[in-house]
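Let's practice the habit of predicting before peeking. Look at the sequence and jot down your guess about where helices and strands might fall. Then scroll down.
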Amino acid sequence: MSRRRTVKDLFVQAKDVAEVMVDLAYAAVFFGDDRIAQAVIDLEQTMGQDINELREIAILAARSPEDAEAMSGVLAVAGAMEKIGDAAEDIARVVLKDLGVPSQLRDDLRHAEEIVARVRLREDNLMEGKTLEELGLPTETGMWVIAIRRDVDWVFAPGGEEVLKDGDVLFLKGPEEGVDLVRELAGAPRRDLAEPVPKTLTGLDRAVDLLVEMKNASEVAVGLAYSAILFHDKGLAAEVSSLEDSTDEMQHELERWVLRAVREGADPDELRGLLHLAFASERIADAAQEMTWLVERDEQPHPIIAEALAEADEIVSECTVSQGSPAGGHSLRELSLRTETGMDVLAIQRGGRWIYRPRGSTTLQPGDRVLAVGPEDGASVLEDLCATPDRKES
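Done guessing? Here is the structure:
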């Protein structure tokens, strides 16, 4: 008889699936791939079933008004995750309905903070026969495998036990500098992409730039929302609210540039797709803000939430930069945190101020509180970088 899943099991599953759905949806847009888009639709149905089961178990588990009040926070966060999954489905339907995606968008996504890449295992690869866990790509390259195409079959959201085979085509997400590291392991030549050529920006170009910015902001908002809940930090909750306001403003600005693009003769179908993608990104930011209501109301989250966030594929972690640590005095670019640890720095608290989405030129200083998301083993590496030598040896 199979074991009945717990609220925590289902919560972890919902978080992981929601994140994978967003990644796969944008991969479908980038590559114009209907199969990946359909996988997002299928995952949305699975997620809906998981959320319904979570609600049923939570209701049965509440034996008193206090239990019900505590469990309501779990359900609120799970409901926000479901909305993120719904937004990912909307992104995927842009591909399935052939609404049109401007070529400028694919160019911009190629240079976004996190990009999607497609890499095929060649004859002289170093990956064949190894599991994803053995390869440790997130900590070695900063890249996550979100799907594998194997002949005519697909493996979506592969687990660490998945063994790679000759000819596998990997679909990955992560920092641009991590792509060539994976290509070397796969026996493929480096890309050596040319820098984009400066040009006069059209209304469509500006709308595309805003969409990519909305995508980045909404994804950071979700990471900061999890951080705000886990650390019960009102300052972070306020940053999430600020990001949500920013995505609203960017959406309105994008609509203005789309109208200008119409006058400039842009393809109406491509503009429809752009508006759909912008609306979906704004919904993700809305869902992130909904997650933080517990913190804003100064209510302690249910322990299940903290346990679930600690067991998810990507975990939220924090560390403080100590005096004399390897990280102190170095920029994020110099430390290559994303490719060396797999951790994506969401925000840095310096004094009473938050720096969210810090750039590569940001230099870490003693006393900085660093919030990051990534694999569990990457979190340990980051903690060592921020610790004093004495503490690391103890």
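How did you do? Strands lie at 115-120, 144-150, 153-156, 169-174, 315-320, 344-350, 353-356, 369-374.
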